[in-house]
From TrEMBL:
Gene3D superfamilies in the cross-refs: Aldolase class I
Natural source organism: Cognatilysobacter xinjiangensis
Domain of life, per lineage: Bacteria
Lineage summary: Bacteria, Pseudomonadati, Pseudomonadota, Gammaproteobacteria, Lysobacterales
Full protein name: Thiazole synthase
Active site per UniProt: 106
Amino acid sequence: MTDFAKNDPLVVAGVNYSSRLLTGTGKFADLQQTRLATEAAGAQIVTVAIRRTNIGQNPGEPNLLDVLPPERFTILPNTAGCYTADDAVRTCRLARELLDGHKLVKLEVLGDQRTLYPDVVQTLAAAEKLVADGFDVMVYTSDDPILAKRLEEIGCVAVMPLAAPIGSGLGIQNRYNLIEIIENAKVPIIVDAGVGTASDASIAMELGCDGVLMNTAIAGAKDPVLMAHAMKLAVEAGRAAFRAGRIPRKRFASASSPVDGLIG
């Protein structure tokens, strides 16, 4: 980790993280590959689908926490597979029990099985219930700036708009919506869904996003561990470029060297 990254932490629910790349734990070949890819990504926050992954609710079965122990990683339980606010709330409460009172959760309430777009009405309802119940809620949502602001006002600790449909690999399809969300936010904005390769992650960070969450782009690659490493570098490069400030775009050339004082 570079000094630039160490001195520029991502702050979620009052906790500092030196990595701005969050990774999922599904779709890998096995738990060993999950561990290797997570380490190659340098991720400190890892999402876990409570309805699909064993973190202790199924005794005798392989446990994700054996390869990604909570003392090394912040486990982010998510509500993947939930289609109603009530299901999402129940899933978060189960996660809190399994993880000894853990409050940080990723809320997603889906509205359609084909596109996996969020049901924003159910998402708002679930967010209100979870925040009132004491959870620190990171919320997956559409790229609607008005909705993103409303979720922040409810009390969500991070807003996570999609860049394209989940698992599509289409890249950043909505950069102007994302910029509008970022410019009006007082909580971290983390792109969630749509990233396909390293350049997509870098673009998200160059736009000013505070982080990127991905799973399929890494787990679905021919070499997931190498892709995880590439994503780590891309997120760091994109963040550094954002902080450095790019030059303005122009329609004409601009000499790299001064012309004053040339010989002859």
